[in-house]
Amino acid sequence: MIYALLKGGLGNQLFQFAAAKTQAKLHATNCQFVLNEQSISDINCLLKEPVKTTTLIKLNRPFIFRLLDQFRPLNQRFYLKENQQQKPIFIKFPLNCFLDGYWQDPVFFMHQIRMEDLIHWNFTPNPISDVAVHFRGGDYFSSNNKTILGNLPELYYQQAFEKIQSLVNNPVFYLFSDTPETFQFKFLKRYHCVWVNNNSPQKDLMAMSNFTHIIIANSSFSFWAAFLFHQDKNTVICPDKWFLSEKLKNVNPAKRLSNWIKIPSW
Asked: pTM value?
């Protein structure tokens, strides 16, 4: 059995779900999930089969047990905390393990499973001139996250709009955000823009995934809107850096997707 911790918002949970399903496929077994004070209603609204949860006793052992577990050989460990060095050995993780991390890299799943096979909607393309744009607000503006996650500046979006303008005839930009009042950039007045408001996160994700052109933010939610049905998309524009923090400079789930157009973040 593969166990995994579900934490964070909808985009983060999709990465954790994908990593666990990949491990389950590699070992021909099933997977169950442990909740970290988060609701699973959002992710279950997207999936064909709801995730199965557990309150496995082993996961509640004192910290010392988890610490000592890290000194055991990889194929004997139970607690597997994510780090960047694990990417090349992810396929060697043992059967009956617990995954604790964000796993924000397609390398952890894209050659083993198709997430499109696990969600309950199909690709329904919007008109070819329509463009989805995602602005990530919310907790990205908190004092703790500003210097770590980073808020993409107006210049990033301005360059992205100009790139789309050069590729698409008479584009119509559909703007999505959890805090639209924060992103009333002046340059938007030069384009045909439509704000999409009052949807749930899962409805926004489903809607954005059906656009063949999309401009995304440095957000796991954005990533999935672009990555789902990515083979059917004509244009994906994304930031070249995912995090502002130097410690996280090498973390970017989009860097392996060579056909995505990278624009300077900051």
From this structure: 0.91
